[in-house]
Amino acid sequence: MDNTTPPQPFKRIFGDANDSTTLAQRVVEQLRALIMEGALPPEYQLPNEPDLATALNVSRSTVRSALTILEQGGFIQRRWGVGTFIAKSPPTYNNLSINSGVTQLIRSSGAEPGHTEFLMVTRPASEHVANRLSIEPGAPVVVLERVRLANQRIVVFCLDILPQALFQNSTGMIPLAEIEEYIRENQSMYTFIRERLGKEIHHGIAWIRPLTAEAYLAEKLAIPRGSSVLHLEQVDFSVDEEPLALTDEYYVPDAFTFYIYRSS
Amino acid sequence: MDNTTPPQPFKRIFGDANDSTTLAQRVVEQLRALIMEGALPPEYQLPNEPDLATALNVSRSTVRSALTILEQGGFIQRRWGVGTFIAKSPPTYNNLSINSGVTQLIRSSGAEPGHTEFLMVTRPASEHVANRLSIEPGAPVVVLERVRLANQRIVVFCLDILPQALFQNSTGMIPLAEIEEYIRENQSMYTFIRERLGKEIHHGIAWIRPLTAEAYLAEKLAIPRGSSVLHLEQVDFSVDEEPLALTDEYYVPDAFTFYIYRSS
DNA sequence: TCGGCTTAGATGTCTGACAACGACGCATTA
DNA sequence: TAATGCGTCGTTGTCAGACATCTAAGCCGA
Q1: Which residue of B has its CA nearest to A72?
Q2: What is the mean predicted confidence (pLDDT) over B224-236?
Q3: Is residue B241 within 8 angstroms of chain A, CB to CB?
Q4: Which of A12, A211, B205, B207 is deepest in the core (most CB within 10 A)?
């Protein structure tokens, strides 16, 4: 109806990039970014598929493949014979179906991320950890423990656990101090895995459950003992299902509003 | 590797059906069912796309469209130049990304569903409810309240809230008693909406948070006061984003293990 | 024994065409 | 006048065939 505001910053996509990702995937990423940053408003009707294809410099099949993925994720809605529209309320970063890190979650809520109690150690993997990461019990893992802040306020207690074997560089082991420095600066485990280890996180599986804060956790989160916190235990995988990281996150109640898009 | 066990009950798909769904969607449903009931085991390599297309009696583009959707949902994994495989651990019904009802959730855990405290009333919508359902505050809604059992054990307290306007039949209003009888028998709100109202639930959006059980809830769930319960508030939509039902679910801690597939 | 080349088979992309659907306008009819 | 039916047009869905690109595996030679 109010399609009178036509912003269309569709960028041409070049196939020469040795991105190792597929063309359709790059189209998805571009459109998803445009939607999530609000450049394409809700209910806005996209150009039809042939036009979109030429605008993006790809074929219609590639565009259709990308649109199928976006539709499945709840970003757009397609109506046969009518057109393709941005969803009424497309997913945001507090949508659990999107595997964004805590840093991005905090930023998207309009707050500035920070941390206290930054701690990084190496220790042998427990039975449970080893099982989740598909490594041998007792194999060394790097543990990163953080209490994380949004605008100075404690919102989540994080535990990132990675197999030490991941940090094997061609020249040997990356020193812990270097990792620590990087993360202190960029605040993100995800970007470290991608930029320094050259591994791409393809998807994650998160177990979710409520938990009653006992003494230790209550102190970490600075909440009354006995409060209900949300526990998110997540394993992140590479594209070929190799476990890259195990993450334990304990969220202060009502710090964020999480939701999930459930397709029938 | 161990593709020596080749089960292939792919059924030919006929286009003559006036299903109103697309062909690709029907392919998705068939394959998803085969995967979830275990007919296609994890890591099993599917036939290549042209063969699958002829087996299903559709074109390769349709198959590819379906496979894209299944891949996005974590059911299969495609490797360029290699083949298409069932995922190592494909989603099950306790995956929150799949919009299955509580009945199916209980059944899939191997338990027999039941209920106590079955209660059905009509009342005016509160501000919050009206907002969620996109109706006027004070408009009548049908409320279904159930304490639900898995093998006689209390697992969840459910509140289903539907706009009364939905029950307007061509011959007038469907009597509450008839609805009640149907649900007592089939135990499922979802199938009622589909079979009796002719509306199809296309997707849902669920807000998830931990909650401390106060006196009322503790009694309903027969747990100690102060326990942490999981609260799932969900709105189900039709394909054109019309809100059909609002559902409040309060889960007994550790009754189910929920997880989420998070794609990056 | 190792390394590079070739080849076969799979998914990814492109092109062009037609089918099916939905909104809209218009003429017809009660 | 208002409701109804029909045709047109634009869009998404499906089909067909071809080629590109990637992977794994086998072959061959150094």
Answers
A1: B69
A2: 96
A3: yes
A4: B205
Of the listed ranges A87-101, A157-171, B12-26, B177-191, the least confidently predicted one is: B12-26
Q: What CATH number is given for A102-251 in this structure?
A: 3.40.1410.10
CB of A126 nearer than 7 A to strand C: no
d(CA B54, CA B52): 6
Q: How confident is the model at residue A197 (pLDDT cuts 50, 70, 90)?
A: confident
Residue-wise pLDDT tens digits, B146-175: 999 999 999 999 999 999 998 876 667 788
Q: What CATH number matches the domain at A23-86, 3.30.460.10, 3.10.180.10, 1.10.10.10, 1.20.120.530?
A: 1.10.10.10
Any chain A CB within 8 A of the CB of B199?
no
Residue ranges covered by each domain of chain B: 23-86, 102-251
DSSP state of A58: S
Of A59, A52, A53, A89, nearest to A73 (Cα)? A89
How far is the C-alpha of A74 from the C-alpha of A91, rounded, in Å?
7
Using CB atoms, pick whichever of A228, A261, A262 lies closest to residue B211: A228
CA distance B48 to B68: 14
Give the integer Cα–Cα distance in Å for B261 and B96. 8
Q: In whole angstroms, give the CA distance from residue A54 to residue B253.
A: 53
Q: Are B92 and B243 in contact (CB under 8 A)?
A: no
d(Cα A232, Cα A253) in Å, to the nearest integer?
13
Backbone angles phi, psi at A152, to 5 degrees: 70, -5
CA A144 to chain centre: 18
Q: At what angle do helices B23-36 and B60-72 cross, to 10 degrees?
A: 50
Chain B nearest C-alpha distance from A224 (Å): 12
* pLDDT exceeds 80 at position A211: yes
Residue pLDDT, tens place only, B97-124: 999 999 999 999 999 999 998 999 999 9
| A23 CB neighbours strand C below 7 A | yes
Measure CB to CB from residue A72 to each of B69, B89, B253 and give the nearest one.
Answer: B69
Interface test with A, best of B19, B36, B65, B72 (most A CBs within 10 A): B72
Query: Does A85 reach chain B within 8 Å, measured CB to CB?
Result: no
CA B25 to centroid of chain Cα atoms: 16
Rounded, the Å distance between the CA of B181 and C1' of C29 is 47
